[in-house]
């Protein structure tokens, strides 16, 4: 398995030229890096004007590895080749390094870059990325990987300290400023060298410099590959100081996981990405396994989008019954600065709330509480000046009895736990359960299997008045804010709960209708796409130059998206038909409109090139209609093509096809027709002054694929 590393942007508040002077003092050897024994210059090139300096060194490293392993490998030292390409004109230094020893067994590549800060030309940015691929190593592959990662991580931590050490050394030598490169200065240096000053010895010019017609700028470009990191603006890259201030102390590898997952989201979501704290929570929930974290994060993002959870605090008002009888609310913060949520579960009539509101209303209310918790964490991070990404929950069980174990109530509780665990991981910093009665073990036995192991470790349970003693409430909450109902002096404004009047109870039919209404308040529709049975929707256009917009997510499988135009309306599908026109499935609807007897080019025409969309992609786009008539948007099952040179399918194709069970795909989509006069700005923004769709896309910056009459933008969104 290939191990990868990507650093955050490290900022030095010193000019580029001074940083370069400090960097050069690391050679030929650096006492601050014990493993760096020596280095020899292999090749060197300097341009005539002094702007470009390319130097290649062979570095000797003494790896801290078991003596037995070194003896088996037959080496005492490991050699690396490092190529530095300095451009004083552009004020950049690109560094490439790779291993020379065991290059047929182990592949190590590193890319580093020093550049000028985009917002302050007197500051310098540094980034590095690396990859490790161990093909084979005498049966010690796992051991070598651990040693390599440990050594590399250790050196990463020292990187900034080393530069600062040499900056201080320069200051002690009286060097606090290094002038920028200018052509005049270089000419002066050249003239003085001709009048008697020592001249540098002959140097070897690298092969790239001897190519015919290669100028100085081309030399620099060939020294760095497109995959090398380049300094970006603070908006699209993470600063090391920002991580420490707002996200906390992370190890270099944890920083790398965060940055790599964030980059993947930027590349595939094109701007619609979660906040850094949210991404970090999902990584922590999966022990910084990027693949596992990406999977659950994408599922959560699709869930949030489908149910518009991002807008729940602004668009949903809790029913009065909840405001009166739900015995929970926010109450100051704990000693760590975490927001404190108080829940008097023992005083709450869970049966009455379920009978009066239904399961879905309770779930939505809990979601609003979690969204408010995220907002309060952000506020407290600013107030206390340190990262706060979770909250503390205080649950008072005084009054808990068998009534709370009512089966539908427990079912609703388990459903809520399931949804919260999946979509709000690592948001609970601590759970204080107070005054647990004898019936509590029964409830705990029912609930605990649905709670993540990491979450269970955060539970502190106190029976009776144990919370008042040592190791109790005062260890976590200041005395001044302990609620009055727990013997404190602070008045708590959390509702006291009580029995919900039976006059507010509703029938099962009413609750089912209300539950359905709550979760169908989404502008998105779901559909299933089968092999041989595409899903199609019909849009009638009366006025030419109208704009058809769409937004869809490919939740499962790969599909091909097509847009057709027909002058005559297709026959409406028959609901009872399971063949040519309509398929009803538990996973969504499937509607086919194009009749099998229709011929492409005669009965209908294609107005856009087919767009292949992979599982996990999210696609937004628009089409400006040329003619009135009927437009058909089609999502079609994408079959894997066989290899062109053989009749047998490729291995990758077979594996990909196995992931799509039963030849079924799922899409979640929304479409809208906008008048051309209402369609404003760039077509990629999909903004309309009269469109509900604009709310979804106002914050989206997306790459696009343009045709004469349309523009399509896409990103992955599992």
UniProtKB/TrEMBL annotation:
Keywords assigned by UniProt, alphabetized: Cytoplasm, Golgi apparatus, Immunity, Innate immunity, Phosphoprotein, Signal transduction inhibitor
Xref: PROSITE patterns: CRAL_TRIO, GOLD, PRELI_MSF1
Biological role stated in the UniProt entry: May play a role in innate immunity by inhibiting the antiviral RIG-I signaling pathway. In this pathway, functions as a negative regulator of RIGI, the cytoplasmic sensor of viral nucleic acids. Prevents the interaction of RIGI with MAVS/IPS1, an important step in signal propagation. May also regulate the SLC18A3 and SLC5A7 cholinergic transporters.
InterPro entries: CRAL-TRIO_dom (IPR001251), CRAL-TRIO_dom_sf (IPR036865), CRAL/TRIO_N_dom (IPR011074), CRAL/TRIO_N_dom_sf (IPR036273), GOLD_dom (IPR009038), GOLD_dom_sf (IPR036598), PRELI/MSF1_dom (IPR006797), SEC14/CRAL-TRIO_domain (IPR051064)
Any Pfam family hit: PRELI
Boundaries of every CRAL-TRIO domain copy: 318-494
Protein's UniProt name: SEC14-like protein 1
A biological process term (GO) from this entry: negative regulation of RIG-I signaling pathway
Membrane-crossing segments per the record: none
PANTHER family: SEC14 RELATED PROTEIN (PTHR23324), SEC14-LIKE PROTEIN 1 (PTHR23324:SF51)
Organism: Crocodylus porosus
Residue intervals of the PRELI/MSF1 domain: 3-175
Assembly description: Interacts with RIGI (via tandem CARD domain); the interaction is direct. Interacts (via GOLD domain) with SLC18A3; the interaction is direct. Interacts with SLC5A7 (via GOLD domain); the interaction is direct.
GO cellular component: cytosol; Golgi apparatus; nucleoplasm
Location of the GOLD domain: 520-673
Subcellular location: Cytoplasm; Golgi apparatus
Molecular-function GO term, any one: RIG-I binding
Gene name linked to the record: SEC14L1
């Amino acid at each position: 398995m290939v191990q990868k590393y990507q650093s955050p942007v490290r900022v030095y508040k010193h000019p580029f030229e001074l940083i370069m002077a400090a960097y050069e003092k690391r050679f030929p050897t650096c006492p601050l890096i014990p493993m760096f024994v020596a280095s020899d210059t292999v090749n060197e090139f300097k341009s005539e004007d002094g702007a470009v300096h390319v130097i290649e060194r062979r570095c000797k490293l003494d790896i801290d590895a078991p003596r037995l392993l070194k003896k088996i490998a037959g080496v005492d030292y490991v050699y690396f080749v490092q190529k530095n390409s300095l451009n004083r004109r552009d004020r950049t230094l690109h560094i490439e390094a790779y291993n020379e020893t065991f290059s047929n067994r182990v592949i190590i590549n590193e890319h580093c870059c020093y550049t000028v800060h985009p917002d302050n030309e007197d500051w310098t940015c540094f980034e590095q990325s690396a990859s490790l691929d161990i093909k084979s190593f005498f049966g010690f592959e796992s051991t070598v990987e651990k040693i390599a990662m440990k050594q590399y991580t250790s050196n990463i931590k020292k990187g900034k300290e080393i530069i600062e050490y040499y900056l201080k050394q320069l200051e002690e030598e009286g060097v606090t400023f290094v002038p920028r490169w200018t052509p005049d200065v270089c000419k002066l240096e050249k003239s003085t060298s001709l009048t008697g000053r020592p001249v540098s010895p002959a140097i070897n010019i690298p092969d790239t410099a001897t190519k015919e017609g290669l100028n100085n700028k081309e030399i620099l470009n060939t020294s760095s590959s497109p995959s090398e990191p380049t300094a970006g603006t603070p908006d699209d890259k993470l600063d090391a100081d920002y991580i420490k201030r707002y996200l906390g102390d992370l190890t270099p590898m944890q920083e790398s996981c965060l940055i790599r997952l964030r980059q993947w989201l930027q590349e595939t979501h094109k701007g619609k990405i979660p906040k850094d704290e949210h991404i970090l929570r999902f990584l922590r929930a999966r022990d910084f396994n990027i693949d596992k974290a990406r999977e659950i994060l994408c599922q959560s993002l699709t869930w949030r989008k489908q149910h518009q959870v991002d807008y729940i605090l602004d668009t949903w008002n809790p029913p009065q019954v909840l405001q009166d009888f739900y015995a929970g609310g926010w109450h100051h913060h704990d000693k760590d600065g975490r927001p404190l949520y108080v829940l008097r579960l023992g005083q709450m009539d869970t049966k009455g709330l379920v009978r009066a509101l239904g399961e879905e209303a309770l779930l939505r209310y809990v979601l609003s509480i979690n969204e408010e918790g995220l907002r309060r964490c952000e506020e407290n991070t600013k107030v206390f000046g340190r990262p706060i990404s979770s909250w503390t929950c205080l649950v008072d069980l005084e009054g808990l009895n068998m009534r709370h174990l009512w089966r539908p109530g427990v079912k609703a509780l388990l459903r809520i736990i399931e949804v919260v665990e999946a979509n709000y991981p690592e948001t609970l910093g601590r759970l204080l359960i107070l005054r647990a009665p004898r019936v509590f073990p029964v409830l705990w036995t029912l609930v605990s299997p649905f709670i993540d192991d990491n979450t269970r470790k955060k539970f502190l349970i106190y029976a009776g008045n144990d919370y008042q003693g040592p190791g109790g409430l005062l260890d976590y909450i200041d005395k001044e804010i302990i609620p009055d109902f727990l013997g404190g002096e602070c008045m708590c404004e959390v509702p006291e709960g009580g029995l919900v009047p039976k006059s507010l109870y509703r029938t099962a039919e009413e609750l089912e209708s209300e539950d359905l209404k709550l979760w169908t308040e989404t502008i998105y529709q779901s559909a299933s796409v089968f092999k041989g049975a595409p899903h199609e929707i019909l849009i009638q256009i009366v006025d030419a130059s109208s704009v058809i917009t769409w937004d869809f997510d490919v939740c499962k499988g790969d599909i091909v998206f097509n847009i057709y135009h027909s002058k005559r309306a297709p026959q409406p599908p028959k609901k009872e038909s399971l063949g040519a026109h309509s398929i009803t499935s538990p996973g969504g609807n499937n509607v086919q409109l194009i009749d099998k007897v229709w011929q492409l080019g005669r009965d209908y025409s294609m107005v856009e090139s087919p767009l292949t969309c992979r599982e996990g992609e999210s696609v937004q786009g628009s089409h400006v209609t040329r003619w009135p008539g009927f437009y058909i948007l089609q999502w079609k099952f994408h079959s894997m093509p066989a290899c062109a040179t053989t009749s047998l399918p490729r291995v990758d194709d077979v594996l990909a096809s196995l992931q799509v069970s039963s030849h079924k795909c799922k899409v979640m989509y929304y479409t809208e027709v906008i008048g051309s006069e209402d369609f404003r700005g760039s077509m990629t923004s999909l903004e309309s002054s009269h469109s509900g769709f604009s709310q979804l896309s106002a914050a989206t910056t997306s790459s696009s694929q343009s045709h004469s009459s349309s523009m399509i933008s896409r990103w992955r969104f599992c």
